[in-house]
Specification:
The protein is globular. The chain has a single domain (6-312), classed as 2,3-Dihydroxybiphenyl 1,2-Dioxygenase, domain 1. It has five helices and 16 strands. It is an alpha+beta fold and 314 residues long. It comes from Paenibacillus mucilaginosus 3016.
Amino acid sequence: MKTAGIHHITAFARDPQQNVDFYAGVLGLRLVKKTINFDAPEVYHLYFGNEAGSPGTIITFFPWPNSRRGRIGGGQVGITSYAVPAGSLAFWEERLARFGIQTEKVTRFSETSLQFSDNEGLRLEIVERVEGANSRWSFGGIPGQHAIKGFAGAVLFSTNPARTKDALEQLLGFVKEAEDAGYTRFRSEAGIGNVIDVPHAAMERGSDGAGTVHHIAWRAEDFEHHEAWRTAVQAYGYQPTPVVDRQYFNALYFREAGGILFEIATDPPGFAKDEAPEALGEKVMLPEWYEPHRAQIEANLLPIEVRVLEGDQS
């Protein structure tokens, strides 16, 4: 079995409006779904991606006001990597500088990436990639030809790199591509969310909290394959959770030997399941078991809006 690549990445934040301002306002992603943490309905679960929230483009957040700050380290996604069209890096370097965001150019596997952190300290990078369809979503001061396509991939910080790399190859079906400057690179078949780098050195374990990634999810093409993935995870020696209905995909979870929480998520049904494609992210969407409590839930959520930031207003 082979996963096509990353389905989504989920992280912790604190202030929901600042989270929206950074990912929609600065990075120009679309807020495709505004819902709640099903296990803690007083907290938003926000999804940002391309125009449709396609697998391989989705970063999600639990913005928990007054939560503790996490520490990035082993057992986490250390760097979330975004892909932009060729020739776009200079645009993003200027844009991020205009919003007061410090950047650093880093070369890995002969690619130059622009590394920076979001408002909570989550580590991000932007890299030019020819592969992968351009986004059709444009917002604020970002023209379509420079808009983020989706994930380029991720850098996994592992407490046991040998075991993590084995799981990528032998369980998830990634192909080892190269070794360079302290990293091993793996590639999957998708056009986006398809490149995973693992540092050779084991990392000291990190701690969860705002500014860290909670889990990384890999793609299962449909519900039938999802059930087969659960069998494959068990056969590999890990203990997956039962399948969980997350409304917009089915999910199962397991923690690999390097400490990273992995999820396998289905591509269907997608975010247009309960909203028209042109209206994604406009309303707080609740699963049916929470609908009777909508008034109370919405009253407990801080108001948020997608807005054009001052730096993009002429």
